[in-house]
Amino acid sequence: MNIFTTYLITLIFFFAFAGRTHANDTLYLNTYLEMISKNHPLIQKANLNEEIATANILKGKGALDPKIYSDIDRKQFDDLDYFTVWQSEAKIPTVLPIDFSVGYERNDGIFLNNENNVPQNGLVYGTINLSILRGLLFDEQRYNIQNAEIKGLKNLIEREIITREIIFQSINTYLDWASKNNTLDISNEFLDLIFDRHLNVIQLYENGDIPAIDTLESRLNLNSAEKLRLESRNNLIKAKEKLSLFIWNDNGDPLQINSVVVPMALQELTSLLREMSIIVNPDFIEDPLIAKIENEIETINLDTRLEKENLKPQLDLKYNTIINLGKVDLDPTFTLNDYKYGVTFQYPIINRKTKGQIRINEALTEQNALDKVEYLGRLNNKYVGLVSRENIQNNILDVANEKLANSQLLYNAEVLKFSLGESSIFLLNSRERKLLEAQIELIKSYHSLGMVFSELYYLKLGQE
Protein backbone atom coordinates (compact mmCIF):
# COMPACT_ATOMS: atom_id res chain seq x y z
CA MET A 1 0.00 0.00 0.00
CA ASN A 2 1.59 3.30 -1.13
CA ILE A 3 1.82 6.55 0.82
CA PHE A 4 -1.00 8.22 -1.16
CA THR A 5 -3.41 5.37 -0.47
CA THR A 6 -2.51 5.34 3.22
CA TYR A 7 -3.06 9.07 3.46
CA LEU A 8 -6.39 8.82 1.62
CA ILE A 9 -7.62 6.05 3.94
CA THR A 10 -6.59 8.07 6.99
CA LEU A 11 -8.40 11.11 5.65
CA ILE A 12 -11.55 9.16 4.85
CA PHE A 13 -11.52 7.44 8.24
CA PHE A 14 -11.08 10.76 10.03
CA PHE A 15 -14.13 12.29 8.43
CA ALA A 16 -16.23 9.13 8.61
CA PHE A 17 -15.56 8.18 12.23
CA ALA A 18 -14.18 11.09 14.22
CA GLY A 19 -15.74 14.15 12.68
CA ARG A 20 -18.58 14.51 15.16
CA THR A 21 -17.05 13.47 18.46
CA HIS A 22 -15.62 16.89 19.26
CA ALA A 23 -19.09 18.36 19.72
CA ASN A 24 -20.12 15.62 22.15
CA ASP A 25 -18.94 14.02 25.38
CA THR A 26 -16.93 10.85 24.83
CA LEU A 27 -17.42 7.98 27.26
CA TYR A 28 -14.04 6.29 27.12
CA LEU A 29 -13.77 2.55 27.62
CA ASN A 30 -11.56 2.87 30.72
CA THR A 31 -14.04 5.23 32.38
CA TYR A 32 -16.89 2.94 31.43
CA LEU A 33 -15.19 -0.12 32.93
CA GLU A 34 -14.31 1.80 36.11
CA MET A 35 -17.98 2.72 36.56
CA ILE A 36 -18.99 -0.91 36.10
CA SER A 37 -16.35 -2.25 38.49
CA LYS A 38 -17.38 0.27 41.13
CA ASN A 39 -21.16 0.49 40.86
CA HIS A 40 -22.62 -2.50 39.00
CA PRO A 41 -24.95 -4.35 41.42
CA LEU A 42 -23.81 -7.82 40.36
CA ILE A 43 -20.15 -6.92 40.87
CA GLN A 44 -20.99 -5.41 44.25
CA LYS A 45 -22.84 -8.62 45.03
CA ALA A 46 -19.81 -10.65 43.92
CA ASN A 47 -17.53 -8.51 46.12
CA LEU A 48 -19.58 -9.59 49.14
CA ASN A 49 -18.13 -13.06 48.56
CA GLU A 50 -14.95 -11.78 50.17
CA GLU A 51 -16.87 -11.08 53.37
CA ILE A 52 -18.49 -14.50 53.11
CA ALA A 53 -15.05 -16.07 52.67
CA THR A 54 -13.76 -14.32 55.79
CA ALA A 55 -16.87 -15.36 57.69
CA ASN A 56 -16.44 -18.99 56.60
CA ILE A 57 -12.87 -19.03 57.91
CA LEU A 58 -14.06 -17.50 61.18
CA LYS A 59 -16.79 -20.12 61.33
CA GLY A 60 -14.24 -22.90 60.84
CA LYS A 61 -12.07 -21.61 63.67
CA GLY A 62 -15.14 -21.91 65.86
CA ALA A 63 -14.32 -25.61 66.14
CA LEU A 64 -11.56 -24.56 68.55
CA ASP A 65 -13.72 -22.23 70.63
CA PRO A 66 -13.56 -22.99 74.37
CA LYS A 67 -16.93 -23.99 75.81
CA ILE A 68 -18.34 -23.69 79.30
CA TYR A 69 -21.48 -25.26 80.66
CA SER A 70 -23.21 -25.66 83.98
CA ASP A 71 -25.87 -28.23 84.81
CA ILE A 72 -28.01 -28.31 87.97
CA ASP A 73 -30.44 -31.16 88.66
CA ARG A 74 -32.45 -30.78 91.87
CA LYS A 75 -35.43 -32.61 93.41
CA GLN A 76 -37.50 -31.21 96.31
CA PHE A 77 -40.50 -33.18 97.58
CA ASP A 78 -42.54 -33.16 100.78
CA ASP A 79 -40.26 -30.58 102.37
CA LEU A 80 -37.32 -32.88 101.81
CA ASP A 81 -34.22 -32.11 99.78
CA TYR A 82 -34.00 -35.34 97.80
CA PHE A 83 -30.88 -34.38 95.85
CA THR A 84 -29.03 -31.54 94.20
CA VAL A 85 -26.47 -32.40 91.52
CA TRP A 86 -24.44 -29.47 90.21
CA GLN A 87 -21.66 -29.78 87.66
CA SER A 88 -19.84 -27.03 85.73
CA GLU A 89 -17.09 -27.49 83.16
CA ALA A 90 -14.89 -25.51 80.79
CA LYS A 91 -13.66 -27.42 77.72
CA ILE A 92 -10.69 -26.35 75.59
CA PRO A 93 -10.41 -28.07 72.18
CA THR A 94 -7.09 -28.15 70.29
CA VAL A 95 -5.95 -28.87 66.74
CA LEU A 96 -4.27 -31.99 68.13
CA PRO A 97 -6.19 -35.18 69.02
CA ILE A 98 -6.22 -33.98 72.64
CA ASP A 99 -8.93 -32.01 74.42
CA PHE A 100 -8.65 -30.51 77.86
CA SER A 101 -11.36 -29.58 80.32
CA VAL A 102 -11.60 -28.27 83.87
CA GLY A 103 -14.71 -28.76 85.97
CA TYR A 104 -16.31 -28.36 89.38
CA GLU A 105 -18.79 -30.81 90.93
CA ARG A 106 -20.86 -30.30 94.08
CA ASN A 107 -23.74 -32.58 95.12
CA ASP A 108 -25.85 -33.17 98.23
CA GLY A 109 -29.24 -34.54 99.34
CA ILE A 110 -30.65 -37.35 101.45
CA PHE A 111 -31.43 -39.53 98.44
CA LEU A 112 -28.30 -38.73 96.45
CA ASN A 113 -26.98 -41.54 94.28
CA ASN A 114 -23.87 -43.03 95.90
CA GLU A 115 -21.70 -42.43 92.86
CA ASN A 116 -22.48 -38.72 93.14
CA ASN A 117 -21.29 -38.44 96.73
CA VAL A 118 -18.59 -35.77 96.98
CA PRO A 119 -17.11 -33.76 99.87
CA GLN A 120 -19.23 -30.93 101.18
CA ASN A 121 -17.16 -28.28 99.41
CA GLY A 122 -17.17 -30.28 96.19
CA LEU A 123 -14.51 -31.52 93.80
CA VAL A 124 -12.39 -29.84 91.14
CA TYR A 125 -11.26 -32.06 88.29
CA GLY A 126 -9.19 -31.78 85.14
CA THR A 127 -9.85 -34.02 82.15
CA ILE A 128 -7.69 -35.11 79.23
CA ASN A 129 -9.34 -36.80 76.21
CA LEU A 130 -6.91 -38.51 73.84
CA SER A 131 -7.66 -40.33 70.57
CA ILE A 132 -5.10 -43.06 69.96
CA LEU A 133 -6.18 -44.55 66.59
CA ARG A 134 -9.09 -42.88 64.80
CA GLY A 135 -8.62 -39.14 64.94
CA LEU A 136 -4.94 -39.24 65.81
CA LEU A 137 -3.82 -37.77 62.45
CA PHE A 138 -7.11 -36.19 61.34
CA ASP A 139 -10.47 -35.66 62.93
CA GLU A 140 -13.70 -33.75 62.47
CA GLN A 141 -12.36 -30.64 64.21
CA ARG A 142 -9.46 -30.34 61.80
CA TYR A 143 -11.82 -31.21 58.96
CA ASN A 144 -14.13 -28.32 59.85
CA ILE A 145 -11.23 -25.84 60.00
CA GLN A 146 -9.76 -26.87 56.64
CA ASN A 147 -13.17 -27.18 55.00
CA ALA A 148 -13.99 -23.61 56.03
CA GLU A 149 -10.80 -22.38 54.38
CA ILE A 150 -11.65 -24.25 51.16
CA LYS A 151 -15.17 -22.78 51.19
CA GLY A 152 -13.71 -19.32 51.70
CA LEU A 153 -11.46 -19.79 48.69
CA LYS A 154 -14.45 -21.01 46.67
CA ASN A 155 -16.30 -17.76 47.43
CA LEU A 156 -13.34 -15.73 46.14
CA ILE A 157 -13.20 -17.84 42.97
CA GLU A 158 -16.92 -17.29 42.37
CA ARG A 159 -16.34 -13.55 42.71
CA GLU A 160 -13.67 -13.67 40.00
CA ILE A 161 -15.89 -15.71 37.68
CA ILE A 162 -18.85 -13.35 38.01
CA THR A 163 -16.71 -10.21 37.66
CA ARG A 164 -14.97 -11.52 34.55
CA GLU A 165 -18.25 -12.42 32.85
CA ILE A 166 -19.72 -8.97 33.50
CA ILE A 167 -16.58 -7.19 32.26
CA PHE A 168 -16.52 -9.35 29.13
CA GLN A 169 -20.18 -8.71 28.34
CA SER A 170 -19.81 -4.99 29.02
CA ILE A 171 -16.87 -4.69 26.60
CA ASN A 172 -18.80 -6.49 23.88
CA THR A 173 -21.77 -4.19 24.49
CA TYR A 174 -19.55 -1.10 24.30
CA LEU A 175 -17.99 -2.38 21.06
CA ASP A 176 -21.44 -2.92 19.58
CA TRP A 177 -22.48 0.59 20.66
CA ALA A 178 -19.40 2.10 18.99
CA SER A 179 -20.13 0.21 15.76
CA LYS A 180 -23.78 1.24 15.70
CA ASN A 181 -22.88 4.85 16.48
CA ASN A 182 -20.36 5.00 13.62
CA THR A 183 -22.85 3.40 11.26
CA LEU A 184 -25.37 6.09 12.13
CA ASP A 185 -22.77 8.81 11.49
CA ILE A 186 -22.10 7.40 8.04
CA SER A 187 -25.81 7.01 7.25
CA ASN A 188 -26.42 10.64 8.30
CA GLU A 189 -23.62 11.88 6.08
CA PHE A 190 -24.88 9.69 3.23
CA LEU A 191 -28.41 11.03 3.61
CA ASP A 192 -27.19 14.64 3.65
CA LEU A 193 -25.18 14.02 0.50
CA ILE A 194 -28.06 12.28 -1.31
CA PHE A 195 -30.53 14.97 -0.28
CA ASP A 196 -28.32 17.78 -1.62
CA ARG A 197 -27.81 15.88 -4.86
CA HIS A 198 -31.53 15.25 -5.20
CA LEU A 199 -32.18 18.98 -5.01
CA ASN A 200 -29.48 19.50 -7.62
CA VAL A 201 -31.02 16.84 -9.90
CA ILE A 202 -34.42 18.52 -9.66
CA GLN A 203 -32.80 21.82 -10.60
CA LEU A 204 -31.08 20.21 -13.57
CA TYR A 205 -34.39 18.72 -14.70
CA GLU A 206 -36.14 22.08 -14.40
CA ASN A 207 -33.36 23.62 -16.49
CA GLY A 208 -33.91 20.96 -19.14
CA ASP A 209 -30.45 19.41 -18.73
CA ILE A 210 -31.63 15.89 -17.76
CA PRO A 211 -34.78 13.82 -18.37
CA ALA A 212 -37.56 13.41 -15.82
CA ILE A 213 -36.70 9.76 -15.19
CA ASP A 214 -33.42 10.87 -13.56
CA THR A 215 -35.40 12.61 -10.82
CA LEU A 216 -37.17 9.31 -10.08
CA GLU A 217 -33.83 7.52 -9.92
CA SER A 218 -32.56 10.19 -7.54
CA ARG A 219 -35.70 9.92 -5.40
CA LEU A 220 -35.30 6.15 -5.07
CA ASN A 221 -31.74 6.65 -3.91
CA LEU A 222 -32.98 9.17 -1.36
CA ASN A 223 -35.55 6.65 -0.11
CA SER A 224 -32.80 4.10 0.42
CA ALA A 225 -30.70 6.63 2.34
CA GLU A 226 -33.65 7.57 4.55
CA LYS A 227 -34.38 3.89 5.26
CA LEU A 228 -30.72 3.27 6.11
CA ARG A 229 -30.66 6.14 8.59
CA LEU A 230 -33.85 5.01 10.31
CA GLU A 231 -32.54 1.47 10.63
CA SER A 232 -29.23 2.80 11.96
CA ARG A 233 -31.01 4.95 14.53
CA ASN A 234 -33.11 1.98 15.60
CA ASN A 235 -30.03 -0.23 15.98
CA LEU A 236 -28.24 2.47 17.96
CA ILE A 237 -31.19 2.82 20.34
CA LYS A 238 -31.13 -0.93 21.01
CA ALA A 239 -27.37 -0.81 21.55
CA LYS A 240 -27.80 2.04 24.06
CA GLU A 241 -30.48 0.09 25.89
CA LYS A 242 -28.08 -2.81 26.37
CA LEU A 243 -25.27 -0.47 27.37
CA SER A 244 -27.44 1.26 29.99
CA LEU A 245 -27.83 -2.07 31.80
CA PHE A 246 -24.15 -1.87 32.78
CA ILE A 247 -23.98 1.76 33.94
CA TRP A 248 -24.99 2.71 37.48
CA ASN A 249 -24.21 5.72 39.64
CA ASP A 250 -22.81 5.80 43.18
CA ASN A 251 -26.33 5.75 44.64
CA GLY A 252 -27.19 2.46 42.93
CA ASP A 253 -29.45 4.03 40.29
CA PRO A 254 -29.27 2.93 36.63
CA LEU A 255 -28.08 5.56 34.16
CA GLN A 256 -29.27 6.27 30.63
CA ILE A 257 -27.00 7.16 27.72
CA ASN A 258 -28.25 10.42 26.22
CA SER A 259 -27.68 11.69 22.70
CA VAL A 260 -24.64 13.86 23.54
CA VAL A 261 -22.60 10.95 24.89
CA VAL A 262 -20.66 9.04 22.26
CA PRO A 263 -18.20 6.14 22.34
CA MET A 264 -14.56 6.16 21.32
CA ALA A 265 -13.75 6.04 17.63
CA LEU A 266 -13.61 2.45 16.42
CA GLN A 267 -10.00 2.61 15.33
CA GLU A 268 -8.92 4.02 18.69
CA LEU A 269 -11.08 1.52 20.54
CA THR A 270 -9.65 -1.42 18.63
CA SER A 271 -6.10 -0.26 19.29
CA LEU A 272 -6.87 0.02 23.01
CA LEU A 273 -8.39 -3.47 23.10
CA ARG A 274 -5.32 -4.81 21.30
CA GLU A 275 -3.09 -3.44 24.05
CA MET A 276 -5.40 -4.71 26.79
CA SER A 277 -5.53 -8.24 25.37
CA ILE A 278 -1.80 -8.99 25.15
CA ILE A 279 -1.09 -12.27 26.95
CA VAL A 280 2.58 -12.74 27.81
CA ASN A 281 2.48 -16.32 29.09
CA PRO A 282 -0.65 -18.19 27.91
CA ASP A 283 -0.67 -21.17 30.29
CA PHE A 284 -4.19 -20.49 31.74
CA ILE A 285 -3.51 -22.65 34.80
CA GLU A 286 -4.76 -19.78 37.01
CA ASP A 287 -8.08 -19.47 35.17
CA PRO A 288 -10.90 -19.15 37.75
CA LEU A 289 -12.85 -22.01 36.19
CA ILE A 290 -9.75 -24.20 36.53
CA ALA A 291 -9.40 -22.98 40.12
CA LYS A 292 -13.05 -23.86 40.73
CA ILE A 293 -12.44 -27.45 39.61
CA GLU A 294 -9.32 -27.68 41.77
CA ASN A 295 -11.30 -26.31 44.72
CA GLU A 296 -13.91 -29.02 44.20
CA ILE A 297 -11.15 -31.66 44.11
CA GLU A 298 -9.73 -30.31 47.38
CA THR A 299 -13.18 -30.51 48.98
CA ILE A 300 -13.66 -34.12 47.88
CA ASN A 301 -10.14 -35.08 48.97
CA LEU A 302 -10.79 -33.57 52.39
CA ASP A 303 -14.01 -35.57 52.70
CA THR A 304 -12.13 -38.70 51.62
CA ARG A 305 -9.46 -38.13 54.25
CA LEU A 306 -12.09 -37.93 56.97
CA GLU A 307 -13.82 -41.05 55.64
CA LYS A 308 -10.52 -42.96 55.66
CA GLU A 309 -10.12 -42.08 59.33
CA ASN A 310 -13.43 -43.85 59.91
CA LEU A 311 -11.87 -47.07 58.62
CA LYS A 312 -9.61 -47.10 61.65
CA PRO A 313 -10.70 -48.52 65.02
CA GLN A 314 -11.74 -45.93 67.56
CA LEU A 315 -9.71 -45.99 70.76
CA ASP A 316 -10.18 -43.00 73.04
CA LEU A 317 -8.67 -42.52 76.47
CA LYS A 318 -10.13 -40.27 79.12
CA TYR A 319 -8.34 -39.37 82.36
CA ASN A 320 -9.64 -37.18 85.18
CA THR A 321 -7.57 -35.80 88.01
CA ILE A 322 -9.61 -35.06 91.13
CA ILE A 323 -8.94 -32.38 93.77
CA ASN A 324 -10.80 -32.67 97.06
CA LEU A 325 -11.85 -29.24 98.32
CA GLY A 326 -12.56 -30.48 101.86
CA LYS A 327 -15.38 -32.08 103.75
CA VAL A 328 -16.13 -29.16 106.10
CA ASP A 329 -13.56 -26.41 105.75
CA LEU A 330 -12.11 -25.37 102.43
CA ASP A 331 -8.96 -27.45 102.37
CA PRO A 332 -7.91 -28.54 98.82
CA THR A 333 -5.93 -31.76 98.68
CA PHE A 334 -4.50 -33.58 95.68
CA THR A 335 -3.22 -37.12 95.47
CA LEU A 336 -2.42 -39.37 92.54
CA ASN A 337 -4.65 -42.01 94.02
CA ASP A 338 -7.72 -39.84 93.36
CA TYR A 339 -8.60 -40.18 89.70
CA LYS A 340 -11.16 -41.41 87.21
CA TYR A 341 -10.42 -42.80 83.78
CA GLY A 342 -12.23 -44.41 80.88
CA VAL A 343 -11.49 -46.27 77.67
CA THR A 344 -13.72 -46.33 74.60
CA PHE A 345 -13.20 -48.81 71.77
CA GLN A 346 -15.32 -49.13 68.66
CA TYR A 347 -14.83 -50.68 65.22
CA PRO A 348 -17.39 -51.49 62.54
CA ILE A 349 -16.64 -54.98 61.32
CA ILE A 350 -17.57 -54.55 57.64
CA ASN A 351 -17.79 -50.73 57.29
CA ARG A 352 -19.45 -50.85 53.87
CA LYS A 353 -20.91 -47.38 54.19
CA THR A 354 -17.50 -45.74 54.59
CA LYS A 355 -15.86 -47.88 51.92
CA GLY A 356 -18.64 -47.08 49.48
CA GLN A 357 -18.35 -43.34 50.14
CA ILE A 358 -14.58 -43.48 49.61
CA ARG A 359 -15.09 -45.14 46.21
CA ILE A 360 -17.64 -42.50 45.27
CA ASN A 361 -15.24 -39.73 46.27
CA GLU A 362 -12.38 -41.29 44.31
CA ALA A 363 -14.58 -41.47 41.21
CA LEU A 364 -15.69 -37.87 41.67
CA THR A 365 -12.07 -36.76 42.05
CA GLU A 366 -11.14 -38.51 38.81
CA GLN A 367 -14.11 -36.93 37.03
CA ASN A 368 -13.07 -33.47 38.16
CA ALA A 369 -9.46 -34.12 37.16
CA LEU A 370 -10.65 -35.06 33.67
CA ASP A 371 -12.82 -31.92 33.57
CA LYS A 372 -9.72 -29.89 34.42
CA VAL A 373 -7.69 -31.49 31.62
CA GLU A 374 -10.53 -31.00 29.13
CA TYR A 375 -11.16 -27.37 30.05
CA LEU A 376 -7.47 -26.49 30.10
CA GLY A 377 -7.16 -27.99 26.62
CA ARG A 378 -10.18 -26.01 25.52
CA LEU A 379 -8.63 -22.78 26.79
CA ASN A 380 -5.36 -23.47 24.96
CA ASN A 381 -7.21 -24.32 21.76
CA LYS A 382 -9.31 -21.19 22.09
CA TYR A 383 -6.20 -19.06 22.48
CA VAL A 384 -4.54 -20.59 19.41
CA GLY A 385 -7.76 -20.11 17.46
CA LEU A 386 -8.09 -16.48 18.56
CA VAL A 387 -4.51 -15.73 17.50
CA SER A 388 -5.25 -17.20 14.06
CA ARG A 389 -8.53 -15.26 13.87
CA GLU A 390 -6.69 -12.07 14.80
CA ASN A 391 -4.30 -12.53 11.89
CA ILE A 392 -7.18 -13.21 9.51
CA GLN A 393 -9.20 -10.24 10.79
CA ASN A 394 -6.17 -7.99 10.32
CA ASN A 395 -5.95 -9.17 6.72
CA ILE A 396 -9.68 -8.58 6.27
CA LEU A 397 -9.23 -5.09 7.71
CA ASP A 398 -6.44 -4.37 5.21
CA VAL A 399 -8.68 -5.53 2.37
CA ALA A 400 -11.58 -3.43 3.67
CA ASN A 401 -9.32 -0.38 3.89
CA GLU A 402 -8.09 -0.91 0.33
CA LYS A 403 -11.63 -1.46 -0.92
CA LEU A 404 -12.72 1.79 0.73
CA ALA A 405 -9.82 3.69 -0.84
CA ASN A 406 -10.58 2.28 -4.30
CA SER A 407 -14.30 2.94 -3.90
CA GLN A 408 -13.53 6.53 -2.93
CA LEU A 409 -11.33 7.01 -6.00
CA LEU A 410 -13.98 5.57 -8.33
CA TYR A 411 -16.65 7.70 -6.71
CA ASN A 412 -14.58 10.87 -7.04
CA ALA A 413 -13.97 10.06 -10.71
CA GLU A 414 -17.68 9.46 -11.29
CA VAL A 415 -18.55 12.79 -9.64
CA LEU A 416 -16.13 14.51 -12.00
CA LYS A 417 -17.57 12.74 -15.06
CA PHE A 418 -21.11 13.60 -13.97
CA SER A 419 -20.19 17.26 -13.60
CA LEU A 420 -18.81 17.16 -17.17
CA GLY A 421 -21.97 15.51 -18.48
CA GLU A 422 -20.18 12.24 -19.29
CA SER A 423 -22.01 10.10 -16.70
CA SER A 424 -25.54 9.44 -15.53
CA ILE A 425 -27.31 9.73 -12.21
CA PHE A 426 -27.72 5.96 -12.25
CA LEU A 427 -23.97 5.33 -12.44
CA LEU A 428 -23.27 8.00 -9.83
CA ASN A 429 -25.79 6.47 -7.41
CA SER A 430 -24.26 3.06 -8.00
CA ARG A 431 -20.75 4.35 -7.15
CA GLU A 432 -22.18 6.08 -4.12
CA ARG A 433 -23.79 2.90 -2.81
CA LYS A 434 -20.56 0.96 -3.37
CA LEU A 435 -18.70 3.57 -1.33
CA LEU A 436 -21.30 3.30 1.44
CA GLU A 437 -21.01 -0.48 1.42
CA ALA A 438 -17.24 -0.19 1.72
CA GLN A 439 -17.58 2.17 4.71
CA ILE A 440 -19.99 -0.17 6.47
CA GLU A 441 -17.77 -3.16 5.72
CA LEU A 442 -14.86 -1.31 7.32
CA ILE A 443 -16.93 -0.75 10.46
CA LYS A 444 -17.84 -4.45 10.56
CA SER A 445 -14.18 -5.38 10.10
CA TYR A 446 -13.15 -3.23 13.06
CA HIS A 447 -15.99 -4.65 15.11
CA SER A 448 -15.00 -8.26 14.31
CA LEU A 449 -11.38 -7.55 15.16
CA GLY A 450 -12.45 -5.89 18.41
CA MET A 451 -14.49 -8.97 19.34
CA VAL A 452 -11.38 -11.13 18.91
CA PHE A 453 -9.45 -8.81 21.24
CA SER A 454 -12.35 -8.90 23.70
CA GLU A 455 -12.20 -12.71 23.83
CA LEU A 456 -8.43 -12.59 24.29
CA TYR A 457 -8.92 -10.12 27.13
CA TYR A 458 -11.41 -12.56 28.67
CA LEU A 459 -8.66 -15.20 28.74
CA LYS A 460 -6.18 -12.67 30.11
CA LEU A 461 -8.52 -11.77 32.97
CA GLY A 462 -8.43 -15.42 33.96
CA GLN A 463 -4.66 -15.21 34.41
CA GLU A 464 -4.87 -12.11 36.61
What characteristics describe this protein?
Outer membrane efflux proteins (OEP), six-stranded antiparallel sheet, two-stranded parallel ribbon, disordered N terminus, alpha+beta, 9 helices, 464 residues
Topology:
Blueprint: H1 3-18, E1 25-26, H2 29-39, H3 41-61, E2 67-77, E3 80-92, E4 98-108, E5 123-131, H4 140-206, H5 212-244, E6 261-262, H6 266-276, H7 288-309, E7 314-324, E8 333-346, H8 352-419, H9 425-463
Parallel strand pairs: 1-6
Antiparallel strand pairs: 2-3, 3-4, 4-5, 5-7, 7-8
Helix pairs in contact: 1-8, 2-4, 3-4, 4-5, 4-7, 4-9, 6-9, 7-8, 8-9
Structural write-up:
This protein has 9 helices and 8 strands. It is an alpha+beta fold. It folds into 2 domains: 3-39 and 142-300 and 360-463, Outer membrane efflux proteins (OEP), CATH 1.20.1600; 68-94 and 98-134 and 313-350, no CATH class. The strands form 2 sheets. A 6-stranded antiparallel β-sheet has the order 2-3-4-5-7-8, with no helix packed on it. The protein has a two-stranded parallel sheet with strand order 1-6. A hairpin with a 2-residue loop joins β2 and β3. α4 (140-206) runs antiparallel to α5 and α8 runs antiparallel to α9 (425-463). It starts with a helix and ends with a helix. Residues 1-23 have low confidence and may be disordered.
